[in-house]
Amino acid sequence: MTATDQRTDRLKKALRDAGIRITRQRAALLDVLADAEDHPDAVELHRRAVARMPGISLSTVYRTLTALEEQGVIHRHQFEGDAARFEHAETEHHDHMIDVESGEVIEFCSDRIEHLQKQIAAELGYEIVHHRMELYVRKKAGEG
């Protein structure tokens, strides 16, 4: 079974657990979501799903995404000045850089940043229970 098949199964189970019937349209949307390696918004997910199964409504996409988020199998990211974007919840912790010109979302991990955040919180008498880092970036002139 491929990683995409496993994701699809996990998404289907989450909807069933939420009491939501898996229609052909929802199944197509779940396949699209399972395939997504980027951070698509609802409109983009709708566009991709309609290409596979015409007739899917945007409201079905939104309701399905809300249910999946409530079940904890996808994460919603609300990047500054942009529509909410979605990604799989099973990914390891990572932070995001958002290119302010192209809208591209770049994932990154930095042990140095993680350590520094913990150190700063401890120095102030706290422990981190959850965090999210978003860096808004622009390519340097002359770089690629």
UniProtKB/TrEMBL annotation:
Q: Where does Fe cation bind?
A: H93, D95, E114, H131
Q: Which GO terms describe its biological process?
A: negative regulation of DNA-templated transcription; regulation of secondary metabolite biosynthetic process
Kindly state what the record says about how the cofactor is bound: Binds 1 Mn(2+) or Fe(2+) ion per subunit.
Q: Name one Pfam family in it.
A: FUR
Keyword Transmembrane helix belongs to the record: no
A GO molecular-function annotation: zinc ion binding
Q: Superkingdom of the source?
A: Bacteria
Keywords, A to Z?
A: Cytoplasm, DNA-binding, Iron, Metal-binding, Repressor, Transcription, Transcription regulation, Zinc
* Cellular-component GO terms for this entry: cytosol
Tell me the InterPro entries matching this sequence.
FUR, Fur_C, WH-like_DNA-bd_sf, WH_DNA-bd_sf
Q: Does the keyword DNA-binding apply?
A: yes
Locations listed in the record: Cytoplasm
Q: Which cofactor does it need?
A: Mn(2+); Fe(2+)
Name the family the entry cites. Belongs to the Fur family.
- How does it associate, per the subunit comment? Homodimer.
Q: What is this protein called?
A: Ferric uptake regulation protein
